[in-house]
UniProtKB/TrEMBL annotation:
Family (UniProt): Belongs to the ABC transporter superfamily.
Alphabetized InterPro entries for the sequence: AAA+_ATPase, ABC_transporter-like_ATP-bd, ABC_transporter-like_CS, P-loop_NTPase, Siderophore_ABC-ATPase
Keyword Transport: yes
PANTHER family, per database record: IRON(3+)-HYDROXAMATE IMPORT ATP-BINDING PROTEIN FHUC
Keywords: ATP-binding, Cell membrane, Ion transport, Iron, Iron transport, Membrane, Nucleotide-binding, Transport
Record-given protein name: ATP-binding cassette domain-containing protein
Annotated GO CC locations: plasma membrane
Amino acid sequence: MDDQMANRIEVKALSLSYGPEVVLDALSLPIPSGQITVLAGPNGCGKSTLLRAIRRLHAPQSGQVLLDAEDISKLNGKALGRRIGLLAQSPSAPQDMTVEELVRLGRYPHQAMMQPWGAGDDAAVAAAMVGTGVAEMRQRRIGSLSGGQLQRAWIAMVLAQETDVICLDEPVNHLDMAHQLDCLELVTRLNKEQGRTIVLVLHDLNLAARYADQLVFVADGKVRERGTPETMMRSDLIDEVFNVTAEIIIDPVHKRPICIPHRRS
């Protein structure tokens, strides 16, 4: 896979700790351009920290993250914000903020003293709201939104950044089944129709297998294995990574592998 396509992001031997706790341990991972890469693994294995490190929100002890072969440590904050968008897990904002005000925050990396808000910013915000289906609620306070509506508003904020790389940490967390599908279908359209490189953290292994081009299992701060869902969804590997015995079958509709967990191993 690495020889056949360019990698938009290269994580190289990245190590990161919180105090004495090692969270990422010399982790290396290529993220192919124009694909959906899904990170999966047990709680606390380092998935969210890896996303934040890719967006340079945590400085590593060693290793580096390359974006289009350029070390992200050499980019200033706004330059990086114009190239990588991140929606963290459980983001927060003032409850009396309107949807449009929230989405407009996504344009911050594009603002400068000599480049005030302009027509291009208005167009980016409008397109992001239309694309996520929140345009009609632009004047609503975010405190009045349902969980699914609020998540779409946050994704609209990330889209307004107009980055080629979008990182989403558990974007379907706390959403019901219908809104989970809406969210992931939106992500898929961004990838297929606009060529965005998407990096997702998902806990639901069956959703991960359904939407991923590259599926990555992270455990103990390292990449345990990566590949297509067809090569990754194996009973022995799921037992090794998740400590769960499971049967793998093929989804008769989408033709992707499905994990049927039996019990803890």
